[in-house]
Design goal:
The chain contains eight helices and 22 strands. The chain is α+β, with helices and mostly antiparallel strands and 398 residues long.
Length: 398
Amino acid sequence: MSDPSQPGAAGAALPPLPPRRESALRARQRQGRLRVLAAAGFRQLVREQGLAEAYRATDVVVAANAEFTDQGTLLLQLGPTDPPIRLRDPQLDGLAAFSGGIGSDLALAIGTAASDGNRRGGAHLLVDLLAGERLEFSAGGEATPLQPRRDLHTWLSLDRIGYGRLLLHRAIVENGVVAVSSAEGLVRSAYGPLLGPFANALYSCGGADSIGLAMPGLTLLGPGSPVLVAGAIGWVTGSGSGHQPDPRRLPSGHARTPGAVAAVSVDLHEIEPGWLRACHFEGHGSALLVPIAAPIPLLNAGVAQQLAADNDLLEAPVLDVAIPRRIKPSFGGVSYSALQAGRIRVNGRELSAAPSHSPRLAEAIGRELIDRLVDGRFPLRLPLLPLGRRPGLIPLDP
């Protein structure tokens, strides 16, 4: 474990270092002189040269995630029909969608599953559309005087959709969890299959390389912040689903549990299909593996100090997901260095640990963002507003 008393450690006192202005970083980018490192590379530079020198030598650090989500919505703007139709009960490739208002806009949840038990869900339809496939579309009509059509049967492909957006309601989360099971046998969870009692563990966050643990509180993200989503520039729209701005924190400021959450919107036609993975969690439903990378400008030494925290200083909570209650039994926290080593101790037992995310895909999207920042193909800007302070987890208890 790092010793905070040593020069250059994450908790060490720093000599006075000048803050940086956003405009100065943009000027360096325009001049082709922006110095960008991945989060892992920055921590390595801190270990080799100390925090003060690493801060002086770096302008921007890139952190990245590639996590599974079923909390997303595909919004499609469909063209007019003749005669016009007010859509009711639309279905896309056999999956129920939603249409509201008087137009023909369509919404499809990423986690939508087929009623006949088919393993294809909303995430799979998104991937198929991006791959250029044609999907069957059908709907009834309300048959009003100005929208008299009663039914519609056609095919949709990406080039027949005028405008589309992927909304990720829980795109970036400050920390993750470690899922374990106290039940006998196999438990199928949203993180993957768990063997119990206490035979394996699955963890959902990438630790020090993740956006949320490289940027405590997601303080440099907010409405108007650009992030790289599956090869396209996406935009933070505000606080996301389950946003908790004040979780329990370590003395360094890093969250000990899932905390702040950012929602992101991205243009469907800009997404590069090779980045996305659709999957099916048995017993849970459809989900999407989405790689996201975010730039973290080193505006001051405090930002650098939090970025320097290694995996042995950061932790995730261990939750028993076999208990079907809102508040699940917790077994404390374990360090990300132990998780990434593949063995942890929970409830007096040693468990194998594996990622319920893709470190490889996260590293790849991070490298892509570094290239775009250096080449000036990605905007460098601070948010228009910070994320909200209102917590998003308000129970629906009677």
